[in-house]
Amino acid sequence: MKQFIRISCAILCCFVIAACGQNEAKPSEPAPQKKPAPVTKEEKPPVQLGTDRNPDTLQIPVLMYHSINTNVKNNLITPPNEFDAQMKWLADNGYHTVTLAELDGLLETGKNVPDKPVVITFDDGYQDNYTNAYPILKKYGLKANIFVITDKIAKNNHFDEAALKEMSAYGIEMDSHTVHHHELNTLSYEEQLKELQDSKTVLERLTGKKVNSVCYPVGRYNEDTVRAAEAAGYAMGFTTEPGKANKNDGMYTLPRVRMVPGMSMESAVK
């Protein structure tokens, strides 16, 4: 009898072990995963950086510099320490520098105008624009524009292509001062058009950016100049006539504020 019980228990244990083995071998079914709800992007309105102004009355000072140098021989040269003080004044007093590419839309529409806008321009493309002015502009985080005479790049104390590309990559806008700096009003329409087209082509090749504006050499221009500037694809043309820029001056005959040694920035922008 005892032997029968032992045999029965042994058989029962075998069944139990086999059943456990089958349960372990059978993988458990993974719990169903809930798919995440699709994320809907909230449409945000464009960021308003300024205020809308009446373009007919909007006037923006476009400052005209040439050389930034300690050797002050004429009123086209501003000493670096004076230029530094002027840029510091702009930064300390809440002025916002805009490029000429940005100025175009501001003058035409009056939309989203930053508080206290001002444009900084340099004529000719002198070497000291790179060695003296550029570090000061970076120091105060200011934008600027240089009207380049393309035939003088790397010649006669003008900066070279490497400096031009470095400043352009930083955000200093390169614009046209023609190829040879001839007085445009002495040239035929075809000659003017070539000067404007060829300089634009060179600058766009060097920078990889669209050239938006031209400054007429010595401020001289005529009706052919205005037609040629528009035909060449410029949005704006600048003179040396005094005043703040307003679209009613004509987008191809815009005035500027000439900066001379000893001039205070406060008087220039008021």
Write up what this structure looks like:
This protein is of the alpha/beta class. The chain has a single domain, classed as Glycoside hydrolase/deacetylase (TIM Barrel), CATH 3.20.20.370. Helix content is 39%, strand content 15%. The chain is built from eight helices and ten strands. Strands 1, 4, 5, 6, 7, 8, 9 and 10 form an eight-stranded parallel beta sheet that branches. It has a two-stranded parallel ribbon with strand order 2-3. Helix 2 packs parallel to helix 4 and helix 6 packs parallel to helix 7. The longest helix has 24 residues. Pfam families: Polysacc_deac_1.
What is the helical fraction, as a range of percent?
25-40%
Determine the strand fraction and express it as a percent band: 15-25%
CATH C-level name: Alpha Beta
Tally of extended strands? 10
Domain NodB homology: 116-270
GO molecular function: hydrolase activity, acting on carbon-nitrogen (but not peptide) bonds
Keywords: Signal
Signal peptide: 1-25
Topology at a glance:
Elements: H1 2-25, E1 62-65, E2 67-68, E3 77-78, H2 80-92, E4 96-97, H3 100-109, E5 117-124, H4 127-140, E6 145-148, H5 161-170, E7 173-176, H6 189-207, E8 213-215, H7 223-231, E9 236-242, E10 254-258, H8 265-269
Parallel strand pairs: 1-5, 1-10, 2-3, 4-5, 5-6, 6-7, 8-9, 9-10
Quickly list its features.
alpha/beta; 8-stranded parallel β-sheet; 8 helices; 10 strands
